[in-house]
Amino acid sequence: PQANIPAKHSAGDDDDVNWNTDDEIDNFQSSPRNILHMDETVAKFIEMGFSMEMIGRAIEETGGENPEPMMILETLFKLSTSSEASSSKSKVIDELIGMGFSEELVIKAIQEHGEENLEEITNALLSYANELNSFRGDGRLQDLIKMGYPRKEASIALERCDAISVLATYSCIFSNFSGEIASLAEVVDFIFAAQMARQLDEFWAAPDEQERRINEPPPRRRRLNTDIASDDELIRLPNPMIGFGKWWPAWDKRTKLNCVLTCIASAQLTNKIRKRLEKHERDPAVQKDVVDQCKKWNLVWVGKNKAAPLEPYEMERLLGFPNNHTRGISRKDRYKSLGNSFQVDTVAYHLSVLKPLYPKGINVLSLFTGIGGGEVALHRLQIPMKLVVSVEISEVNRNIFRSFWEQTNQRGDLIEFRDVEELDDHKIEGLMDQYGGFDLVIGGSPCNNLAGANRVSRTGLEGDQSSLFYDYCRILEAVRSKASRMRRRDRYK
DNA sequence: CACAAGATGAATTCAGCG
DNA sequence: CGCTGAATTCATCTTGTG
C-alpha cells in the first residue's frame, strides 16, 4: 500500500472550524439517510412555491442540526408573510421591471397570460421585446442599455452569445450553434441567467456573510464585470465557449455536441477536411461526409473550412473545471482524464443540498477520484472538506488532484489510496473511528467495459475494470453498517 | 520511451410508425 | 406493443516516428 497519510489536523489552529469530536459526531448524525429525507422536504417546499432562497433562510432560522420539516414550514410561512419578504410573485414582477421591461409591458403580459403563469409572462415579454425592435447588428448594445442593463454587462453578454452559449450536463454537451448573431431574446436570456446565478451565489455565500445579509439591509449587488478572468471567481458566468470565429457553414445543422470521449481527432483530419472543402464546398456528398466526421469527433469550426477538435482547456471549461486544472501532463493524458470525469456543475447542483446541512464541513470518501470532479464541485460550493479519503489508481490523476488540493489551500486532511481493493472493512472502520464517520461517499466506477466505443472488451459489469462497481457497493455497505453501529453506540453512551 | 495517427464494429437507444 | 432505421458511443490496439 502506498497510502499517503499526512499528520492529523493540529488542534491549535485559530480557524473558524471546530474540530472537536462532539461536533464531528453531531455532524455525523445528519447521516446520508437524513440528507435524502431533507432533500425530499426541500423539494416539497419548492413544489409549494417557496423559493430556494427562502427555504435556505427558513432552515437556517429554524436552527438545530436537523430541524423538523414542520418547524421549517412554520418559519417559511412567517417569512413569507413578513413585510420584508414580498411574495415570490411580486418579487418576480419587480425583477422583470428591474430588467428594463416597462411597467406597462409587464402589466400587459400579466393581463394576457394570467397572474399565475410567470414563465409565460416572461416569454411574452421577451417576444414583445423582439417585436418592438429589430435588435440585430450594431444597435443591440444600445438597445440593451436602453432597457436598463449596465453597459459592461450588456457587452459581455453580447460577446458571449455571439460566440456559442453552452450548457453542459454529465458528459453530454448541448449547445446553441446558430452560427448567426444572437437574437436579443437570447442575450436577455443570458443576462437573466447571469442574474439568477448571482442570486444563487448570494444564497450560497459563506455562513457569516449570510448572517450579515439577514441582519442588515441588503448590500449593493455585486457587479458582473469584476474579476471575470479570475480562476476561482465566486460569480461564475456561463463558460465563454468554443467557436472563435463567425464561420459556420449553413449545411452543418448541428445544434449540440456529442459525448466528450477520451480520444480526439488528429490534426491530419482537420487538414483533410480543409482541403476537401476548398475544392468541393458545394458538393452535398462532401458536406454530408464532413458533417459525419464532425459528429463523430466533436469537431467545431474555428475558421473558414477549418474544423478542429476541442482543446484540453476547452474541455476543462465545458466540464466545469478551473482553467488548467489538468496542466502539466501530456495532451493525450489530459484528454483521457477529462473524458472520464464528472461534469462539475452538474455534480455541484446535486451536492448543493449539503450546503445548509453541513455548515462546518464534511468528511468525504471519494472512490475513483480521477481528477477530482466531486471535490472541485464541493470547493465551488464552498462546502469545507474536513477530510477527503481519495482512492485513485492512476498516478497522473492523483498528482492532478493533489495539486488542486494544495493550490486551493485546503485545510482538511487528504488521505490517498491507490486501489479500492486495498480499502478493506478494517481500514474503513479505522478511518471512521478516527474521523467520526463519512458524510458523503462519492465516485463513478470505471466504464471501460460498458462504453459503446470500446470494441475490444465491452464485456459489461463483469469486465476487468467495470467490475470494480461491486467494490463500490461493498465499501458503501461497510460504511453504512459501521455508521449504524456508531449511532447505536452513541445512543447508549 | 512517449505519443500521434489510424484502424478496429457492434450494442444500445430512440424516434417514428403501423 | 414490435418493427425499422438512424444515431450514438466515459475505448483499445498496432504501427510509425522522433
Automatic annotation (TrEMBL):
Q: Where in or outside the cell is it found?
A: Nucleus
**Primary subcellular site in the record, as a coarse category:** nucleus
Instruction: Specify whether DNA-binding is a keyword of the entry.
Output: yes
Q: Which keywords accompany this UniProt record?
A: DNA-binding, Methyltransferase, Nucleus, S-adenosyl-L-methionine, Transferase
Residue ranges of the SAM-dependent MTase DRM-type domain? 177-486
Span of domain UBA:
87-128
What protein am I looking at? DNA (cytosine-5-)-methyltransferase
Provide the species name.
Brassica napus
Query: What portion of the full-length protein is represented by this chain?
Result: 47 to 539 of 1481
